[in-house]
User: What shape does this take?
Amino acid sequence: MAGYSGGLRALADEAGAGPGTSGAASGERLRHSDGPWIRAAGGAEVMRTQMAYVKAEFATAHEGVAGCGDGLSVLGALGTVRTSWERRIEAARDECGSLAGRLRAVAGTQGEHDAAIRSNLAGVDAGTGVGAVAGTAAGARVGR
Assistant: This one.
């Protein structure tokens, strides 16, 4: 572990990047899995689809109401509430659709970062002096 010191040595061992590690059991604590992110994205898509059904049911439930209640003041209030809920349903559908894409992007980005960090830790350990972690906002250095 020539390239590592102190806490970085322990971190490299956790990530399975140290010498003699196969990336199996020693790196399990710091392994990334895109499964939860992908499942969350799928859940957001299901919610988006369900919102379309809710909006359709909402419209069906209000069919004929205007003709049955001519002259009732409650119809104006009902129309206002319906319009408000339809806007909220559309906003929720849009948010779920946007969220699904962002969740998938997180899974991909995190996987790319994991690979870059693993590569850089292996480079430091190999004594190449390569230690910059690709993709970090602060351009932090790992190793040395």
Observations:
- DSSP finds four helices and no strands in the chain.
- The first helix runs from residue 6 to 15.
